[in-house]
Design goal:
By secondary structure, this protein is of the alpha+beta class. The protein folds into 2 domains: about 40-60 and about 205-385, Beta Barrel (Elongation Factor Tu (Ef-tu), domain 3); about 95-170, Helix Hairpins, CATH 1.10.287.470. The protein has helices at about 1-25, 95-130, 135-170, 215-230, 375-385, and strands spanning about 35-40, 45-65, 70-75, 85, 90-95, 170-175, 180, 190, 200-215, 230-235, 240-245, 255-260, 270-280, 290-305, 310-315, 320-325, 330-340, 345-350, 355-360, 370-375. It has a 6-stranded antiparallel beta barrel. Strands 6-5-3-8 form a 4-stranded antiparallel β-sheet. Strands 19-1-20 form a 3-stranded mixed β-sheet, with helices on one face. Strand 16 (about 320-325) and strand 17 (about 330-340) form a beta hairpin. Helix 2 (about 95-130) runs antiparallel to helix 3.
């Protein structure tokens, strides 16, 4: 009995530990799952390139309507801001002084013509008399000079009459072009002058509309080099197409065409002006608006398009992508991708036709890890949609 009592304190803790061990749950075994990824099978192709440039709108035609004679404005015949026709009367300057000048010039012309008729008749008679030596040679010469002077007087009087008639016509100020009128600079009763050519108003034709954009001369040189080397190929008439983005970020509904490229570099900005022409039937574009124009440059040959999110940069700044190789494992590949176009990197080298670029599920992916590739039918459509933007 004393020996049994001495063993009892030792057996009790052991029994308790055994019971606790039996009640505790069994440890879980770690299970590893293969990460699922989405891929895009890439192929070489030609991609149209464009460049987005800042610019401002400018009217197709602009005419400053100015006074060409002196006088008081009797009437303004148009509504400010309204569309006017070519030849439409805009202002009426007091014509009374110019009517009087025209009448005086016409009277002077009639007097000169009467003198010419008299001298013509006298010269005709003297021609007969000089043949019979009835008058002196001096008398005949005087008659001939008088006739010639009268003819010159008639010509001068006709010119003065024409000038007076033109000035009278200038009292009715008309629009030289069709377009949108602007604010009137003079009011009824105001005095205008033809010498300083007082500005009356401005008329602008805004359909079609010009867009002047600025491109750096360095970009222009790079484009020429790319075309000369064959990296870019001119895509003909489509290259002249220009798309426009408005100030509010919306896309302008009508496409424009590139009219010309400037030949002079602005020394202050180092840029060259390009001018594009856009239809503007709704008059949505107004002169002086800030816009961004997307100008086509050509087709870049032998490139692959991949989403921008699938490209990363290593510590050296080189572009890398993750591939799902033939063994079903993740592989890192260094590529050359220098152009980002509509959310897509254009890969010039580093990939082969038919390789699968991982475009989704790369967050916890490590090189060499086995991957489970999802059906590509579910991933090709979004990638194609990105490529068409």
């Amino acid at each position: 009995m004393p020996a049994l009592l001495r063993l009892r304190p030792v057996l009790v803790p052991c029994l308790c530990l055994t019971a606790l061990a039996a009640c505790s749950p069994a440890p879980k075994t770690a299970t590893s799952t293969t990460p699922e990824v989405t891929v895009l099978t890439v192929h070489h192709g030609a991609v149209p390139l464009s460049v987005e440039l800042p610019g401002r709108t400018a009217p197709f035609l602009i005419a400053e309507v100015r006074a060409r004679v002196d006088g008081v404005v009797l009437q303004r015949s148009y509504t400010e801001g309204a569309d006017v026709r070519a030849g439409q009367a805009l202002y009426q300057i007091d014509p009374a002084p110019y009517r009087a000048t025209l009448a005086s010039a016409e009277a002077a012309l009639q007097k000169a013509e009467a003198n010419l008729a008299t001298n013509d008749a006298q010269l005709t008679r003297y021609k007969v008399l000089i043949k019979g030596n009835a008058i002196s040679q001096q008398a005949y010469d005087n008659a001939l000079a008088a006739q010639l002077q009268s003819a010159a007087d008639v010509a001068a009087a006709k010119a003065a009459t024409t000038t007076a008639r033109i000035n009278l016509g200038y009292t009715s100020v008309v629009s030289p072009i069709a377009g949108r009128s602007s604010v009137s600079q003079v009011t009824q009763g105001g005095y205008v002058q033809g010498g300083p050519a007082t500005l009356l108003t401005t008329v602008q034709q805004i359909d079609p509309m010009y867009v002047d954009v600025q491109q750096s001369s360095a970009e222009g040189l790079a484009l020429r080099d790319a075309l000369a080397s064959g990296r870019l190929k001119s895509n003909g008439a489509e290259q002249a197409e220009v798309n426009l983005t408005l100030e509010n970020g919306s896309t302008y509904a009508h496409k424009g065409t590139l009219e010309f490229s400037g030949v002079t570099v602005n020394p202050a900005t180092g840029s060259v002006t390009l001018r594009a022409r856009f239809p503007n039937p709704e008059h949505l574009l107004l002169p002086g608006m800030f816009v961004r124009a997307e100008v086509g440059q050509g087709l870049q040959q032998n490139v692959m398009q991949i989403p921008s999110s699938s490209v990363t940069r290593d510590p050296q700044g080189q572009a890398t992508v993750m591939l799902a190789n033939a063994e079903g494992k993740a592989e890192v590949r260094t590529v050359v991708a220098n152009t980002l176009l509509h959310g897509q990197w254009l890969v010039e080298s580093g990939l082969k036709d038919g390789e699968r670029v991982i475009i989704g599920g790369t967050q916890k992916l490590v090189p060499g890890a086995a991957v489970k590739v999802l059906p590509e039918a579910a991933t090709t459509a979004p990638a194609a949609a990105l490529a068409q933007k």
